[in-house]
Amino acid sequence: MRLSKAEEQVMQYLWKLDKAFMKDILDAFPDPKPATTTVATLLKRMTDKGFVDYKLYGKSREYYPLVKKTDYFSKHVNGLIKNFFNDSASQFASFFTSETNLSTTELEELKKIVDQQIQKQKK
C-alpha cells in the first residue's frame, strides 16, 4: 500500500515527532499551513491504510506511526529497483552514481559504506 504525496508529507512530520496531536502536526508545517480539516482527512486515510494509529485522550487524538520510516522507504526503493532496473541492484547503483552528479567525496563515502557492508556479510 502506498501513501499519496500529501500523506507522505504528514507521515514525515509524524516520523520526526514520533507521536503528536493535530496541533503539533499543523505546527510542523511551514506557512501557509494546510486547513485542519485537510490534515484530519489525511490522518483518517492513513489510519484506514494501517500506517497510523492514535490514542484517545478525551476528544483529542494523539497520533503515532505504525510503520517505520526505514521500512517504508526500503520497500519503495526495492520496488523501484525491481520495476525500473530489471531487479538489478547493480544497474540501479550504476544509474545512481552516474546520473546524480555526486562529488568524488560522496562517491568515496558510498564506496566505504559498500565495503563495510561486504565485510559485515562475510562474517
From TrEMBL:
GO molecular function: DNA binding
Taxonomic classification: Bacteria, Pseudomonadati, Bacteroidota, Flavobacteriia, Flavobacteriales
GO BP annotations, alphabetical order: negative regulation of DNA-templated transcription
Record-given protein name: Transcriptional regulator
Keyword field contains Acyltransferase: no
Organism: Aquimarina muelleri
Keywords noted in UniProt: DNA-binding, Transcription, Transcription regulation
Top-rank taxon: Bacteria
Matches recorded under InterPro entries: BlaI_family (IPR005650), WH-like_DNA-bd_sf (IPR036388), WH_DNA-bd_sf (IPR036390)
Pfam families named among the record's database cross-references: Penicillinase_R (PF03965)
Family: Belongs to the BlaI transcriptional regulatory family.
